[in-house]
Design a protein that fits this description.
With 235 residues, the protein is α/β, with parallel strands linked by helices. It is 49% helix and 14% strand.
């Protein structure tokens, strides 16, 4: 969230398989995103970028910078999913324009044809399901060619399903929706992903069948660690 390549690299070096750079709600601009993707990659983790709402241009740019997966918010229909996939995948699966000048060296590819041959399978697309419309269309979105995964945005989903009155991600209707999205991904043989606020919630979601799980963010982790330190110091 903080837009710091140093923070991203530090976290990645702890052994996480992937790290998400949040360009939707976080503080990443183009320059810091390039630095962050490189730092995460050099630290041995897969750099993932969540792009801003409807920013199809950044989908292909982030992949050119070396991102290995893209999370796109508010994918509400199969048409939305097709537009997202088209920007992320090369022909015949999409319409991504050629220009992976940073991606190729980061991913240790020197021959363009070699990168081109592997890119469609090796770069993943996560369609976010976080509205009532998206929930209703989850099966169709999951079945869309070029979409590799569904990703639950639980807080927006809770807001939408409560008609803007609550963000209770443990409400019964939200829990049912989460299970429905996981099942839609599994049935379509796609990856089921979700955001969790903390590690305990992440473990619980893994037990429910999710395979790609965000276990918190740098800001909440920093605040929690700092609060714990301060509590000790004030004894």
């Amino acid at each position: 969230m903080t837009g710091s390549s140093v923070v991203a690299e530090t976290i990645a070096r702890e052994g996480f398989a992937a790290l998400v750079l949040d360009a939707q709600h976080g503080l990443w601009d183009i320059s810091s995103l390039i630095a962050g993707i490189g730092a995460v990659s050099h630290a041995g983790a897969a750099p993932v970028v969540r792009v801003p709402l409807n920013d199809i241009a950044l989908v292909s740019r982030a992949l050119d910078f070396g991102a290995e997966a893209i999370i796109a918010p508010m994918i509400n229909s199969a048409d939305d999913a097709r537009r997202f996939a088209a920007a992320a995948k090369y022909p015949p699966h999409g319409e991504r324009s050629w220009g992976p000048l940073l991606a190729m060296p980061l991913q240790k590819r020197s021959e363009p044809v070699e990168y081109l041959r592997e890119a469609n399978e090796g770069t993943l697309t996560f369609a976010m399901i976080e509205t009532a419309a998206a929930l209703a269309n989850a099966d169709a979105i999951a079945a869309t060619a070029g979409v590799d995964a569904l990703f639950v945005g639980p807080y927006d989903l809770a807001t939408a399903l409560s008609n803007g009155t609550a963000q209770d991600v443990q409400a019964s209707q939200v829990e049912r929706a989460i299970d429905k999205i996981c099942a839609a991904a599994t049935t379509a043989k796609k990856i089921a992903g979700i955001y969790c606020r903390d590690a305990e919630s992440a473990v619980a979601m893994a037990e429910r069948g999710f395979r790609f799980i965000i276990a918190g963010n740098d800001l909440t982790t920093l605040r929690g660690a700092t609060a714990a330190q301060l509590k000790v110091l004030k004894r």
